[in-house]
Amino acid sequence: MAKWPRFNNLTIRHRLLALAAITSSLFVLQGAIAWWNVHQAHHTLVQVFDDHIVPIRQLKQVSDHYTADVSDTINRALGGIITPQEAISRVDEALDDVEKTLGEYKSKHAYRGSDELAYVQRLEDAILQADQAAKQAKLKLSEGKLEELRSIATTEFFFRFERVSLIASQVIDYQLSRVRSIYEGTRDTFIHNRRVNILIICFGIMMIFLLTVGLAESIRKSFGLVAKQLDEIGSREADLTKRVAVQRADEVGEVSYRFNVFMDKLQTLVRGVQRSGKELTSSVKAITSTSRQLEQTARDFGAFTNQVGSTAKEISATSYELVNTMQDVSQVATNTASLATEGQQGLVAMEKTMSQMEEAAKSISGKLAVISDKAANITTVVTTITKIADQTNLLSLNASIEAEKAGEYGLGFAVVAREIRRLADQVALATLDIDQMVREMKSAVSAGVMEMDRFSEEVRKDVEDVRSATQQLNQIIEQVQALLPRFEMVLEGVQAQSEGAQQISDSMVQLTDSVEQTNLSIKESNQIADRLGVAAQGLQKEVSGFEIGPDTSEPANT
Length: 558
Hints:
Number of domains: 2
Helix content: over 70%
Distance between the termini: 24 Å
Number of strands: 0
Shape: flat
Radius of gyration: 66 Å
Number of helices: 7
Order of helices and strands: HHHHHHH
Structural class: mainly alpha
C-alpha cells in the first residue's frame, strides 16, 4: 500500500466503493461473456434447424410420398381395395405434395459443397424417373389395364420409387454428418469458453481477495498507529500537551483530529480547574469574614423582631372587624343577583311566546297568499270557460242557420242548436257570477294578507323590544354576578390578611427562635468554611499533577 499514495489518501468509504466497482466490473464481464456464449449457441441451433433439420424433414416427406403414398395407392388399386379413379386422385395429390415440398427445399436451402449438390441432382433425376413411372401407372389405371400395371409395377415402378427413397436417405445422412460437424465445433467452442469463464472467475476471486486483504491491512495499520500514539500519551504521567499525529485523510485521520480537539478542551478544562482552585481558596477566606459579620447582624435582628410582633397584633384586630363588614356586603349582592335571575327567566318566556306569535302570523300570511294565487288560477279557468261558451254560442248560431237552409230536414237539428245556445248562455252567466265571487274573495284575501303583514310587523317589533329588554337585563345580571366574585375575593383577601397578620405575629415569635438558631448555624458555617479551605488546597495539589503547558490562546498544532 505504500506504493499507492493516492489510494492511501482515499477514505475507507471510497476504498470500499472502489472494491465494489472492481467486483461489479468482473461480474459484468463474466455476464457479457456468458451472454455472448448463449447468443452464439442460440444462433447455432437456429442455423442447424433451418439449414439441416427442416431439409431432413422435407426429404423424409418426399421419400414417404413415393414409398408409402404412391406405392401403397397402386397396391390398393391392384388389390381392388380402392377404385382406379380414387387411386389416380391420391397419386395426383402425392405428386403435388412432392413438387411443393421439393420446391421449398430448393428455394430455402442453401447448398453446401459439391457433394451435397451431386446428391441433390441424383435425387432430382430419381424423382423425374419416379414421376414418369407414376404417370404411366395413372395411364394404366385410367385404361383399366390392371394386370399389365401389376407386371410393370413389380419390375420397374416400385424400383424407381425405392431408388428415390435410397437417394433421399443418402442426402439425409449427408445432412446428419453436417449436423455432427457443427455439433463438434460448437462443443469445442463451449469447452474453450468454459475454460475462459473459469479463468475469469478465478482471477476475479483472487483480485477481490487481494483487494480485501489490502484494505483490511490498511485499516488495521491506521488504527494501530493511532492506538500506539494514544498509549504514548497515557504513559507519560497525564501529559495533556501531547497530540495524535494526523497522517491520513480518511476516517482514521478524522478520529485523530477529533481526539486532538478533545485534548484541547480537556487541557482548557484542567487549566480552568487550577485557576478555580486558587479562586476558591480566596473565596473561603472571604466567606469566613462574612460569617463573622452575619453573626453580629443576627443579634441586631433579634431586637427588631420584638417590635414587629407588637405591630402585627394590632393589624390582626383591625382585619377581624373588616371581615365582618365584607360578609354583610356579599350577602346583599347575592340576594340582588337572585332577583335579577328570576326577572330574566320571565323575559325569556315572554320572548318565546312572542316568537311563536310571529311564526304563526307568518304562516297565516303565507297561506292567504296561496289562496290568492289559487283565486287567480280560478279566474283564468273562468275566463277560458267564458270563451268556450262564446264559441259554443257562435257554433250553435251557425248550426241554426244551416238547419234553416236544410228546410224540413234540419228542423230537429235546429232544435238541438237552440238548446245548445241556451245552455251556452247559462254557462256564460254562471261564469260571470263565479268570476265576480272570485274577485270579491281575492279582494278579501288581499285585505287579510295586508292586515296579517301589519300584525306580523307589530309582533316583530314587540319581539325586538322584548329581546332588547332581555339583553339589558342580561347585562345587569352579568354585572351583578361579576360583582359577586369580586366581593368574595375581597372577603377572602381580608380574611387572608387577618390570618396573615395572626401568622405574622406567630412567625415573629418563631423568627426570634430562628435568629438564635441562625447564630448557631453561622458558627457551624465558619467551621465548614475552614474545612472547605482545606479541601480547596487538596484539589489544587491534585490538579497540579497534570502537564498542561503555558496558558496561551494559540491553538494546538495538529
